[in-house]
Amino acid sequence: MLEYDGLGRATAQVMAVSGVEQWRTTTTYDGERTTVDPPKGGVPTTTITDAVGNTSEIWHYRGDSPNPLLGYDVTKYTYTPQGRLEPVTDAQQNKWRYEYD
User: Fold this and answer.
1) N or C terminus: which one in the chain shows less Cβ crowding within 10 Å?
2) Cα(36)–Cα(43) distance, rounded to whole angstroms?
3) Which domain holds residue 81?
4) How far is CA 37 from CA 13, 60, 96, in A?
5) Looking at the 3D structure of the chain, how many domains does it have?
6) CB neighbours of 10 closer than 8 A, spacing ≥ 6?
7) Whose CA is closest to 24, among 39, 5, 46, 36?
8) How many CB atoms lie within 10 A of CB 61?
9) What is the pTM of this model?
């Protein structure tokens, strides 16, 4: 089952059996930030977008909840002036590069 906000965005995904909730993933929206809080065992994340809607960072929280005070690892995304994905850099400074024809 999905729940939505007034703008039609999904705010919760609920798994229920015989009407009894088993787990829930919640999504909150705050400007350029979208935070996903999964069930226990999942990794909470916050995705930050730039002015044109491209993902610029994803924060992977170290705790069970999306709380920056508990620490997080960041994956950073950069783009060419044409809007193509360039290097992606993870928290350990590993880089993925892309080439385009």
Assistant:
1) C
2) 9
3) 27-96
4) 10, 11, 26
5) 1
6) 2, 3, 4, 27
7) 39
8) 21
9) 0.90
